[in-house]
Amino acid sequence: MHARHVVLACALLAVAACANTANKPAPAAPPAPAAARDDSLYRALGAQAGIEKVVDAALVEIHNDPHIDLFFANTDMPDLRRLLVEQFCAATGGPCEYTGRSMEEAHGGLNLTDEDFDRFVADLVRAFDKAAVPKDLQQQLLALFGPMRPQIVGQ
């Protein structure tokens, strides 16, 4: 769910037309600047402290949902927290890099259903409400993570 938000700019290389440089490789173009990261959602959530508050609230809701909590029975919870903070931070434009496995790898073998995914989303929404995340920011967060459904369900 991962840093994956850096846009690479294309650079055009000029090729020298002179006969005396035809056998020399063209000089490399200077590296293109990375696109500016939009960190407005990260900042609106309260930066790192806000992300951690949201993740902590989500973990409480997950733990309190026996249907969803069973999927985390053998999970290293401090590591899960760290990875969720990274994932939320990176996805919202913060300075973090997600270092976890892909969603397919992380959920492989669990055979999660659409119902499981929807229950998890409901837990997240309750957590967002308890963490006092405004509804417009909740919608932005859900829009970031909603497209992960195919990477999670049925794996």
Automatic annotation (TrEMBL):
Pfam families: Bac_globin (PF01152)
InterPro entries: Globin-like_sf, Globin/Proto, Hemoglobin_trunc
Signal peptide limits: 1-28
SUPFAM superfamilies listed in its UniProt record: Globin-like (SSF46458)
Annotated positions binding heme: H107
PROSITE patterns: PROKAR_LIPOPROTEIN
GO molecular function: heme binding; metal ion binding; oxygen binding
Keywords: Heme, Iron, Metal-binding, Signal, Transport
Protein's UniProt name: Hemoglobin
Lineage: Bacteria, Pseudomonadati, Pseudomonadota, Gammaproteobacteria, Lysobacterales
